[in-house]
Design goal:
Layout (H helix, E strand, L loop, with lengths): L2 E4 L1 E3 L2 E5 L6 E3 L6 E3 L10 E4 L3 H12 L13 E4 L1 H13 L3 E5 L4 H8 L15 H5 L7 H10 L9
Parallel strand pairs: 1-8
Antiparallel strand pairs: 2-3, 3-4, 5-8, 6-7
Amino acid sequence: MTTKVKAYIEHGRWKIDCPQCSLPLVVDTSNNKAICHRCFPGLRSKAMKPPPEFWDYIRKLVAEGPNTPVEAPRGDWRMVPDHEAHTQALEAAKREKAVYEADYPRERGRIEKILRYRTKINMNWYPEGHAKLASLNREIETLEDLSKDNVIHGLPSGLEE
């Protein structure tokens, strides 16, 4: 079972705030879920991957013995996802019921339609009671408010059918 958390749009992406630490999380819109990478840091773990020549170097060391001088390869080690750490963090989040589901507003489609005319940085909508609304001196942001903001900035209202 997942916990539903009120969703909002910020910079054109649906997000939720982690109920544990309040970190904004981008919602995976393919399944409407999010897991906090601050609470479960293994989700973003990285491992170092050696350059391909490194394995030739290791094979030569093994074949010729540790006392044989073998030149170490020069090459860039790359950061790659640590799949084992990711899987462990994902399982821990499931065990602790920390997989959160976005609770979208009924007007989701209309909100998206109004916001699509804006530049990405201005594609924002927050549900009633969200902390960001206080900074805008609003308690609620209605479809009419969003539409009016569009018109003020010379954009289509987005309310026309």
